[in-house]
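Let us work through a complete example step by step.
Step 1: write down the sequence.
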Amino acid sequence: MEPVKMDIHPVDVICVCSADGQLRPLRLQLEDGGHRLYRLDIQEVVGVREVRYVGVEALIFLCRAFEGERERVFELRYTLRAHTWQLLRWVS
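Step 2: predict the structure and record it as tokens.
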């Protein structure tokens, strides 16, 4: 998969919400520059942090997934009020 060219890229995410309201992303689907769809199953959520800036409240998830044999680590942002997911960046 080619790296996403944009810093912030909207993605489709399947997640679960626990009884106490905690979100956990399970799978993400993104479109590359050639309009090909890719799906990554998230193996582990390494960490979650809450951020607030300029009136926007969001959760940042540091996730680990495998693309074939290659391990990928990336950050997903869930915007609380807009209920949207974005791929922030590939860490590795």
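Step 3: interpret the result. The mean pLDDT is 90.
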